[in-house]
Amino acid sequence: MNPRLQGLGPNATQYVMNAGQALDAGRVDEADHHLAKALAAYPEHPEVLRMKAGILSMRGLHPEAIRTMQRALAQRPQDALYHNTMGSLLGTAGDYEGAIRALRQTCELQPGLALAWYNLGVMLTKCVRNEEATDALQRAVALAPTHTGARALLADLLRTRGKVEEAAAEYRRLLAAQPTAGIAWWGLADIKTQRFDDNDIAQMRAALQRREASENDRIGIGFALAKALDDAGRYAESLDSLAQANAVARRHLVWNAPAFSASVAAISDAFEPAPHGAPEQALGREVIFIVSLPRSGSTLVEQILASHSSVEGAGELPDMPQVLAEESRRRGKPFPQWVSEMQPADWRRLGQRYLERTAHWRRERPVFTDKLPNNWIYIGAIRAMLPAARIVVCRRDPLETCFSCYRQQLDANNGYTRTFADLATFWRDFDRSVSRSAALHPGFVRENSYEALVTDPQEQIRELLAFCQLPFEEACLNFHENQREVRSPSATQVRQPLRRDTARSQRYGALLDPLRQALGLPAYAP
């Protein structure tokens, strides 16, 4: 028997085991049903609490999940697996630094646990600490040479460095050993310049039928198959594959659109009128925020700016939401409920805290970019904390943006991408919020059109540089020659010159009318 189940009666033990099997299969409701019976009899048993914390996290109830796990961990402070679980919960909640601390503790307690090194590599990657991530992942692979996730993430890191062929070869090696590895199939698909052939399509269809394919495998394979079918011009089949993959993904975490919309509205209201922010008007001149929905051209804008001799492209940094979360914990109330209590000195403190956390990115160049997409929610806070920061809002045609998000296997924090209705609601939240922010902060918020950039790159790039108070440099026009690391789905695309033939919705014609209807757009007209 699992020693962590000691102290439980036979019936409770069986309930916990049944819950674990349901969780492994992604059946959260079933797992909760089984665990509730064990929890009623043993409300403080650490293993029951650990499993309950996992269920709460999968339901998106992150603070409650972490509190529950803290109760479990207090009883087993030397259990490496418990620290590993805490690291995973913190990471899912967006507290990557906290997750890294918990996972380093796991690795110290049990250095031979490959899973912990892998999880640490994942969290370091999310913090764009790629060298440290590579070390952790290599430790994981050394301990478990067949660890699919670690090898796939190492291949991802090869791709960020522009080593596309090496990355593709590594994904192929993984698939030769494990044909159902959805993470490897999607890794290949995410190399946008690679194309699948008929044999690949047949292999993916066969993999979907194999019993050993997990739900996560089916999600990855489904998105990759959709990309292959799209490349082959089989658009109806591609949409069908996307619908199936998104349906499976949605079972893992249902998106609460009304709650998110209410949260965005509350944040916008809290910053209108704009509060009296940090008194030093030059604070934040070191940073350019690039905000957007995914798949809207933000990686392209960052690549252009990072081609400037004064700018470091830092990627998607978690620091802004984490600084705000720190203040929420300090004040004992959630953001934005404490905004009305803030004084200029408080905003200055938060601005300086952000700059302290991101000092790494100014070691070689004086200015850096932070392109975490969802920072659009925090434009009001950014302006109060860092009055001199520039904010570039990347916009793209809403139909193209939403369809591109629907086609992309994004992480659990982007649960709105699973249905057309949720995508349309999220788009409207974004549109209202950034339009309001741009009107409130003229001269500091620039709305950047992807279509205008593709149509007239020279003029748009000059205007972008002027807005960011950067002198024009020819290298910014030749951004595709920049070999910097790029960690985003557009990593291979931004190493190519701009193309105008990027609109995809026209190829699908009336097949996308349900998405058009959700967005309030007219039906397809040939």
What topology emerges from the helices and strands here?
Elements: H1 10-24, H2 28-41, H3 46-58, H4 62-75, H5 80-92, H6 96-109, H7 114-126, H8 130-143, H9 148-160, H10 164-177, H11 182-189, H12 198-209, H13 215-231, H14 235-252, H15 257-270, E1 287-292, H16 298-306, E2 311-313, H17 319-331, H18 344-357, E3 367-370, H19 379-385, E4 390-395, H20 398-407, H21 420-440, E5 445-449, H22 450-455, H23 457-467, H24 505-508, H25 513-519
Parallel strand pairs: 1-3, 1-4, 2-3, 4-5
Helix pairs in contact: 1-2, 1-3, 2-3, 3-4, 3-5, 4-5, 5-6, 5-7, 6-7, 7-8, 8-9, 9-10, 10-11, 11-13, 12-13, 13-14, 15-21, 17-18, 18-19, 20-21, 21-25
**Roughly what fraction of the amino acids lie in strands?**
under 5%
H/E element string?
HHHHHHHHHHHHHHHEHEHHEHEHHEHHHH
Number of strands: 5
Question: Roughly what percent helix?
Answer: 55-70%
Q: Give the helix tally.
A: 25
Distance separating the two termini: 65 Å
Strand line-up in the sheet with most strands: 2-3-1-4-5
Secondary-structure class: mainly alpha
**What is the residue-averaged pLDDT?**
92
Q: Output the radius of gyration.
A: 23 Å
Would you give an account of this structure?
The structure is a single chain. The chain has 526 residues and is mainly alpha-helical. The chain is 59% helix and 5% strand. The protein has 25 helices and 5 strands. The protein has helices spanning 10-24, 28-41, 46-58, 62-75, 80-92, 96-109, 114-126, 130-143, 148-160, 164-177, 182-189, 198-209, 215-231, 235-252, 257-270, 298-306, 319-331, 344-357, 379-385, 398-407, 420-440, 450-455, 457-467, 505-508, 513-519, and strands spanning 287-292, 311-313, 367-370, 390-395, 445-449. A 5-stranded parallel beta sheet has the order 2-3-1-4-5, sandwiched between helices. α11 (182-189) packs parallel to α13. The longest helix has 21 residues, at 420-440. It is globular. The chain starts with 9 loop residues before the first helix and ends in a 7-residue tail after the last helix. 45% of the residues are buried.
